[in-house]
Specification:
Elements: H1 4-12, E1 20-23, H2 46-66, E2 69-75, H3 78-93, E3 99-104, H4 111-114, E4 121-125, H5 133-138, E5 143-148, H6 151-156, E6 167-172, H7 177-185, H8 192-205, H9 214-223, H10 236-241, H11 245-268, E7 271-274, H12 277-283, E8 287-292, H13 301-314, E9 320-325, E10 336-343, H14 349-355, E11 359-360, E12 364-370, E13 376-379, H15 392-399, H16 403-408
Parallel strand pairs: 1-6, 2-3, 2-4, 4-5, 5-6, 8-9
Antiparallel strand pairs: 7-8, 7-13, 9-10, 10-12, 11-12
């Protein structure tokens, strides 16, 4: 007879050690997969599906045998909770009750406090955790499965030689976490309506907006303010399954009208911001428009960020929008604030976020900084209506710089000091 952990390792032998597939991320492809002919529809390639199935079959057999899955999922995030829903539906069909861990970007999980079982399979859905977290988790369980699509995760997990044998990674930059999890778990009996909701969640998360009414669905779902933590709301899975997408879309159209009004008002109060402060000056990130928001506007941060990025580009600034806000669950609101970055024109915001311990995608990322690091300059639009782009923040920082830095980045050469009318 095999002990539980040995039985799990025996089940994993068919896919080999250090299973890793990274799709559509050129610097370190292990399994390459070209995007589908119409990548805006996010249809999985045959190769992507085959890779997932090859990884999934032995792992899921082991989970069903030992009945001890642990599902970590990105929280609070619609893509993350729908990824967990796919796992929930699969395990229900097998009579298995998973343990759930809502996985917050701004709060570290203390692995020893979880008291995990050595035979467990842990799934990291839509968020692999901070650098080194999957490897640490693998020391406490029988296997760890990462299903993610973020650029930061791809960078952190690129060196497969550092992966322990029981760490299995699938990253696909062209899919969302929910879509990857749906194809990995392949839960039986999913209705066409539920499949469509997964598609709209992915369409919104990747900011493609290729599906009809996905913007309205995303707006309506956000407006319902569902509690995605299964610890605080054990009924979340039933609430998601009970969603009527047509009703959500109808509510969303009303919300979008209100959203447009709030965003227009916020744009008028936007201020110039030096990306990354003094560090950004030396790295040439430039200035962009930013807002600090609260209340209702927090749920529209992505939309506001994109509008700010577009306006920044129009004004000759870096094509980035910055939105600073407090998450409800943040425990350090007195000293820190979350910053969401959105970009256009190929600007990689993840480099900025990663410099402050965050991450995400090239066009959408976030980090948490101290309130002292959030230095907004003067409003971009003066009372007379002219758009003077003299960056107060840059002026102050350069004044205090030493001569060597000034010679590299002189005010007369820095685009933040040019003026437009």
């Amino acid at each position: 007879m095999l002990c539980a952990r040995s039985r799990l390792q025996h089940c994993l032998l068919p896919i080999g050690s250090r299973s890793c597939s990274i799709l559509n991320h050129v610097p370190f492809l292990k399994h390459n997969s070209a995007p589908s002919a119409d990548s805006s529809q996010a249809a999985p390639s045959e190769h992507s599906t085959a890779v997932l199935q090859q990884m999934a079959d032995p792992l899921l057999q082991a989970v069903v045998a030992d009945k001890a899955p642990v599902v970590f999922y990105h929280y609070p995030c619609a893509d993350g909770v729908f990824a967990a829903l796919a796992a929930t539906l699969y395990f229900r069909s097998k009579g298995v009750q998973p343990r759930y861990v809502p996985h917050e970007v701004y709060r570290s999980v203390a692995i020893p406090d979880l008291q995990l079982q050595p035979q467990s399979v842990a799934f990291l859905l839509d968020y692999a955790g901070p650098d080194g977290f999957p490897q640490q988790l693998a020391q406490h369980v029988g296997a760890v499965v990462v299903l993610d699509h973020h650029k930061t995760a791809a960078a952190q997990l690129a060196d497969t030689s550092s992966h322990p044998p029981n760490l299995h990674v699938h990253l696909d930059m062209q899919r969302s976490g929910a879509a990857i999890a749906r194809d990995f778990f392949s839960p039986p009996g999913m209705s066409e309506q539920l499949q469509h909701m997964f598609g709209m969640v992915e369409d919104a998360d990747l900011w493609r907006w290729a599906l009809q009414d996905s913007k309205a669905f995303h707006a309506g779902l956000s407006a319902r303010r569902l509690e995605y933590s299964s610890a605080a709301n054990p009924g979340i899975w039933e609430e998601l399954l009970a969603l009527d997408p047509q009703a959500v879309v109808a509510e969303g159209h009303i919300v979008l009208q209100r959203q447009d009004q709030l965003i227009a008002e916020a744009l008028e109060g936007a201020q110039q911001h030096q990306l990354g402060g003094a560090q950004g000056l030396t790295r040439g990130w430039g200035c962009c428009l930013g807002c600090r928001v609260a209340g209702e506007l927090v749920q529209y941060r992505s939309q506001l960020g994109n509008r700010l990025a577009q306006r920044s580009a129009e004004l000759g600034l870096s094509p980035v929008g910055l939105v600073a806000y407090h998450e409800v669950e943040m425990h350090n609101k007195g000293s820190h604030i979350k910053v969401s970055l959105r970009s256009t024109n190929g600007f990689d915001t993840s480099a900025v976020s990663e410099a402050f311990g965050g991450g995400g995608h090239a066009a959408a990322s976030s980090c948490i900084i101290t309130l002292q690091e959030l230095t907004l300059g003067r409003p971009w639009r003066s009372s007379t209506g002219c758009s003077h782009l003299t960056c107060v923040v840059c002026s102050l920082l350069i004044t205090s710089m030493d001569a060597s830095v000034k010679s590299i980045l002189a005010p007369t050469e820095h685009h933040c000091f040019k003026q437009q009318h």
